Amino acid sequence: MAYGPYQVTLGPRISPVVKYLIIANVVVFLWQTLASLVGSYEIIRIFGLTPYLVIARLYFWQLVTYLFLHGDLLHILFNMFALWMFGSELERYLGSSEFLKFYFITGVGAGLFSLLFHPFSTIPTIGASGAIYGILMAYGMMFPKRYVYLYFLFPVKVKYFVAVLGLIAFLSALSASQSPVDNFAHLGGMLFAFLYLKGLLSLSNIRQNYYRWKLKKMRSRFEVHEGRRNDPPRRRDDDYWIN
């Protein structure tokens, strides 16, 4: 609602890729809900991220499809709210194609991190939280001095908010509690977001660093040989010219 030169809004204007991701998540959630009403849970078994199936039976598609499944209404509401609030501005900053690539890299990275720590688990992981935590990490790195309002009341700088979330996920992952939350996936999303934004996951950067290291190594060898070649010859006592 607008008043004169000012406009009152409840959040950022939704961006194109974020909009389509939310639509896709909602459609899949409705499909999942309808299937559960008739007693079918094959969707979670086939499309959720089950480490044992990924490793033993090569269900690699689960590293992507698990991002679109959710446990209940609150689960999907929280994830889609965070995707809209932080992802929309991030998409405008990165560009739509770059943001989409970033979303799936952090989501798949979160899944890989989860596989690393419990590779033989038969319990599926579902939800977009890994990618959402990646978005939060990126937002904290790009806009560290902005504020978010906890419970819509208490202002906290984004960098501290993200740091606390990461600490909670880390401590929860270390604990032996039987929590249904896959905290390793949350940590993996944040880690892959950090590495990606630092350019450490870029194939071109990796290739350039390798060639730079190889060139430096070749140059050091050349300098050693060059130094030996330019040294003055050592003279023996019986080595002389006859005139």
Q: Which key terms come to mind for this protein?
A:
243 residues, mainly alpha, Rhomboid-like fold, two-stranded antiparallel ribbon, 10 helices, disordered N terminus, disordered C terminus
Notes on the structure:
By secondary structure, this protein is mainly α. The protein has a single domain (2-197), classed as Rhomboid-like (Rhomboid-like fold), CATH 1.20.1540.10. The protein is built from ten helices and four strands; from the N terminus they run ββαααααααββααα. It has helices at residues 16-37, 42-47, 51-56, 62-65, 73-94, 96-117, 129-142, 158-174, 183-197, 203-230, and strands spanning 2-3, 6-7, 147-150, 154-157. A two-stranded antiparallel ribbon has the order 1-2. A two-stranded antiparallel ribbon has the order 3-4. A hairpin with a 3-residue loop joins β3 and β4 (154-157). α6 packs across α7, α6 (96-117) packs across α9 (183-197) and α7 (129-142) packs across α9 (183-197). It is globular, with a radius of gyration of 27 Å.
